[in-house]
Amino acid sequence: MASKVSGDAQVPHRVGTKAPWHLWLVGGFAAVFNGIGAYDYVMTRSHDAVYFEQLGYGAAKIAYFEHYPALPAVFWTVGVFGAVAASALVLFRSRHAVPVALVALCAQAGLDIISFGFMDRLSVFGVRQSLFDVLVPLGLAAVLFGYALMMSRRGVLH
Fold first, then answer.
1. Of all residues in the chain, what percent are helix, strand and coil, respectively (each to 5)?
2. For 59-94, how does the pLDDT look when each residue is reduced to its tens digit (9 = 90+)?
3. Number of independent structural domains in the chain
């Protein structure tokens, strides 16, 4: 570890910190999972009938997305593509992964609050799919943010 002189204080600066093997595992898994989320987003927002049929969506679920309000759509968009960007930034070892992952996490949490609190998502999708839709994306967004923060504090992200 070298030191950078900043004014009167010595600031620690890690030189040539090697990426740990788990960065590629976590970043790769996050990129694949969030890529699937982006595909789902595009297919759902484009109201792809074949995609909806493959998911087994009936009229109520399709109608839920056909009349999707702008505010939750913004949260959804930021959450999905923020998570994709954060995944890529982790793989590129960029320190910007931390704030981008935090924005994606907050957007996902906001989407969940809006969709379950004000859009009756639970009654449309049922308990099982609703639990999946909350726990998996929100949980993985939290893990990605925590991981990026940890890697940043260890000097792996630049």
1. 75, 5, 20
2. 999 999 999 999 999 999 999 999 999 999 999 999
3. 1
| Count of beta carbons in the 10 Å neighbourhood of residue 43 | 15
Kindly state whether residue 143 falls inside one of the protein's structural domains. yes
Residue 148 in any domain: the answer is yes
> Which are the contacts of 2, defined by CB distance < 8 A and separation ≥ 6?
13, 14, 15
Residue 105 forms part of a structural domain: yes
Cβ(69)–Cβ(127) below 8 Å: no
- Please name which of 84, 139, 131 lies closest in space to residue 109, comparing C-alpha atoms: 139
Domain containing 103: what range? Answer: 19-153
CA atoms of 28 and 46, how far apart (whole Å): 27
Residue 41 lies in a domain: yes
Looking at the DSSP bridge assignments, the partners of residue 2 are 13
Threshold 0.90, pTM exceeds: no
